[in-house]
Structure prediction request, 672 residues.
Amino acid sequence: MQWPSGISVSKDGQRLYVAGEIANALLIVDLRNGEETAVRLSSRTCPAVDQGFDDTNGRGCNFSYATALSHDERTAYVSNWGKKSVSVVDTQSAELIKTLRVGTHPSALALNPTNDELYVANTDSDSISVIDTTEKRVVRSFSVSPYPGAPVGTSPNALAVSPDGHQLYVANAGNNDVAVVELGEEGGGPDRVEGLIPTAWYPTGVAVSPDGDGLLVVNAKGLGAGPNPGGPVPIEDPESPPGQYIGSMIEGTLSTIPVPGEERLIDYTERVAENNSFDKGLEKAAAVLKNIKHVIYVINENRTYDQVLGDLPRGNGDPSLTLFGPDVAPNHHNLAEQFTTLDNLYAAGEVSNDGWEWSTAASANTFNQKSWPTNYGGRGFLYTGEGYSLAAAPGRVPENSYIWDALSRKGISFRNYGFWATDTPPVDVWNEPNLEAHTDKQFPGYNLAIRDQFRYREWLSEFRGFEERGNMPAVQFVKFPNDHTCGTDPACPTPQAMVADSDWATGKLVDKVSHSQFWKSTAIFQIEDDAQDGPDHVDAHRTIGHVISPYTQVGEVDSTFYSSVSMLRTMEMIMGLSPLTQFDAAANPMLNSFTTEPDFTPYEAVKPKQSLNEPNPKNGPMAKQSSKMDFSVEDQAPWQALNRAIWKSVYGGDSTMPAPEHNLPIEEEEEE
Prediction:
């Protein structure tokens, strides 16, 4: 079976019931003789094509997750993580007998030990469904959202019931807490959240001690990355300990927590509210934003702050870690100095798979968070971000989870250049109809064989039309991905050339807008989708970003703590949009970067001194290894080797790449 997931064992220990995550099946295994019986849970097939993508956008995949048996073991229940359903299987006949509709992306299941109720964690509805296992139907549901009217983000994903059947404990990965629920009378309710217990980062498991007095909580991300100044550095040996990579250095923890009494639970609940800024209240659009009517959102690929801007004469940088200085990335340097230097800005995601979700939906749901390590770890699971699987779309309605969906609902005009787009024109968009209807089909998505200069020229052709007509979409999404680089692959330009290509395209876009009639009402936001794990002396999440507008502070350093979600929240405020999730609702908007005193001085783009055409030498550092890497999709190349190749391409084959830090306290072509 492909990707076995949740397992239940019969009381006599003779049968296993295993959910097949991409098999759309429940596997019943007779442990006495090894006989296996597969029960199909769907007539559709979950594809796994060459790249490991799901080209049906998740519609063919149940992503069956957890299993549970009724007390008499005549019925098995399977949660379908990618859907809104629980499958009901007759264990005697090995047949699917019913499919129950529940909330969005159901995950964990827990059976009450004293009655016939089964509880279902609806991870992207922030709710719990209750199934009567005698009648095999959903009898009620209740919310575990932290406050009335809260957008999504709680992410209930693990459940446990007290031995007396009176309390349900719900691990909420998004809020870093365990909810204590007083269950109502069987079949009637009401169920009530009594309080919240704070946990470490991203709790994904909870269990109750046999006496009911203690809890065990698994925190998938533990206490975060933390500093690693003396940690091992994978320089020469690609198989060296992976302690420097953000995707593998975060270690889980196990907490033992006594079940709190009433007063302690009140204190705990207040602490959770403070930790999550539940009581922050929504910021209203400030006076500094009132004159901005147009937003251009530019996303690049994978660079840390120190890699590019560590050599700035101001701000918190480390020049010894700068790979791409003013000769390679003059526009990033000049934009940071002419406008505002953002030296405390962090990518919310660790990698592209979750980074793009954070950058466009203000969340990466549990399906995304739990599945990307198996893809990045080379274990063959699907790449689920950027529209490749609907299961990774966060929200109660996955089809309407992203900022462009919010714009569409409000009738706000927008245009897409490369987000969620296929690699070669004419492009398709991965089953995002609201986005596809507003997409320039001649603008390629992620394809490192196509220069960002081509992308800029395609964007420019439409922008000239906006100028001629005197109107421009309120929001534009622009992707310039080539600063990802191909390492030292001889088939590609050097990393310096590819970063220069992306820098030059970004600079020319800002130049063109700032010399246009739209400049007086425009703000351009630029950020990387993630920072992967290159050298940075503060934290591997810290990244380059800009807020560019006549209303941006001139020549200032803004060290306010910001993230990808802060940038998204600021754009929402400009456009009059409500927060998409609890995360942008609580994020710091980037108001400190703005001023009420505009400076309409246009920006003059600078062509990099670095040649955009410089080829990688055939026998360059790690050329053979780079030539075997997969650059067809973001982040499919092995991180350790790629970053090592980039470093050696700049500093020479005998150089040593320094260890990255994880210190965040708490996450050649001419102008036409």
Summary: The radius of gyration is 26 Å. Confidence is low (pLDDT under 50) at residues 49-54, 226-241, 660-672.
